[in-house]
Design goal:
Elements: H1 2-32, H2 40-48, E1 50-53, E2 57-62, H3 78-89, E3 109-115, H4 118-129, E4 134-141, E5 149-159, E6 164-168, E7 175-186, E8 191-197, H5 204-211, E9 235-243, E10 250-254
Parallel strand pairs: 3-9
Antiparallel strand pairs: 1-2, 2-3, 4-8, 4-9, 5-6, 5-7, 7-8, 9-10
C-alpha cells in the first residue's frame, strides 16, 4: 500500500512541477504577445511622430485616417498602436496604460494627447472639459474667406443618424459654437485658414467654415466639390497650449501638417 502511495505522491509532484513550468512559461509568452509585433519601419515612423513625451504624457501627430479610440469598424486605434510601440521600445511586459482624454475625427490629422498614467488622465479630462486647452487648427479651404479675418458664432444641432451638424436657431438641443479664423495664404487653388477653437462642438469647424462658403478640401459632407483620394479632409490640429496635468507648467506643442498638403 505504501508503494502505491509513494508512486501516487511522486506522480502528483511531477504533475505540479510541470503545471508550474507551463504556467510560468506561458504567462511570460502571453505578456510578450499582448500587443502585435511592429516592424522596424513602423517603429521608426511612430517614433518620428512623437511631439512630446514624459512619464505622464504622450503627445503625437495623428495621421488622417487613424482612429483615436476603438469603434465599430474594429480597426486598430492610435492608442493601441502606441501601446505596442511602448511595449516594444521599453521592453515592457504586460499591459501598457494609455488613456484618451480627447479625440480627433478620423479624417482629421494633428495633435493628439494621450495620458500614460491614471492621474494624468483624470486631470486632462477636466482640462479639456473646462476649456483649459487652447487649440488652433489649420484648414485648407476651397475658397478664401471674406472678410479674411473674423469671429463666428452659430447655433449647431447634431443629426445623429447622418453624423452631421447643421446651423440652426437657438432651440432645445442646439449648442452655441464659437471660433476665430484668420486667412494665412493662398495657393493657385486652395486657401490656408487658421482657426482658434473657442468651443468644442461636433464637426464645428467643418460646419461653420462650410456655412460661410469656405468648405474644407476633401470634406464632401460640408460642401467640398470632391473628396481626397485617401478619404481624409484637410483639417489639421496644428497647435495646443495647456497646463501639464502633473507638473503644472505650460506646454506649447506644434505639429506640422501632412506632407501631402499643397501648401
Amino acid at each position: 500500500m505504501s508503494v502505491h502511495t509513494d508512486l501516487l505522491r511522486s506522480a502528483v509532484s511531477i504533475i505540479k512541477s510541470f503545471a508550474t513550468f507551463f504556467f510560468v512559461t506561458n504567462c511570460h509568452y502571453l505578456c510578450t504577445m499582448v500587443y502585435r509585433q511592429l516592424t522596424e519601419d513602423e517603429m521608426a515612423g511612430l517614433a518620428a511622430r512623437i511631439l512630446y513625451e514624459d512619464n505622464h504624457l504622450l503627445i503625437v501627430n495623428k495621421l488622417p485616417g487613424e482612429i483615436t479610440q476603438g469603434d465599430k469598424t474594429g480597426d486598430e486605434c492610435l492608442a493601441e498602436t502606441y501601446k505596442a510601440f511602448i511595449a516594444a521600445r521599453d521592453a515592457k511586459p504586460g499591459q501598457v496604460f494609455l488613456g484618451i482624454p480627447h479625440r480627433l475625427d478620423r479624417p482629421v490629422s494633428g495633435i493628439c494627447v494621450l495620458a500614460k498614467t491614471s492621474k494624468a488622465l483624470g486631470r486632462l479630462g477636466v482640462i479639456f472639459k473646462e476649456g483649459g486647452a487652447r487649440k488652433t487648427y489649420w484648414a485648407l479651404c476651397c475658397s478664401k474667406p471674406e472678410p479674411p479675418e473674423g469671429h463666428l458664432e452659430d447655433w449647431l444641432i447634431k443629426n445623429e443618424p447622418k453624423n452631421k451638424s447643421y446651423i440652426t436657431t437657438e432651440r432645445p438641443g442646439a449648442k452655441l459654437a464659437k471660433l476665430n479664423y484668420r486667412w494665412l495664404k493662398s495657393t493657385e487653388r486652395y486657401h490656408l485658414v487658421e482657426v482658434e477653437l473657442l468651443t468644442g462642438r461636433h464637426h464645428q469647424i467643418r460646419c461653420q467654415l462650410g456655412n460661410i462658403g469656405c468648405p474644407i478640401k476633401g470634406d464632401l459632407k460640408y460642401g467640398a466639390p470632391r473628396s481626397n483620394p485617401d478619404g481624409s479632409i484637410c483639417l489639421h490640429a496644428h497647435e495646443i497650449r495647456l497646463e501639464h496635468p502633473v507638473r503644472h507648467e505650460e506646454l506649447h506643442i506644434v505639429a506640422p501638417p501632412p506632407s501631402s498638403w499643397p501648401v
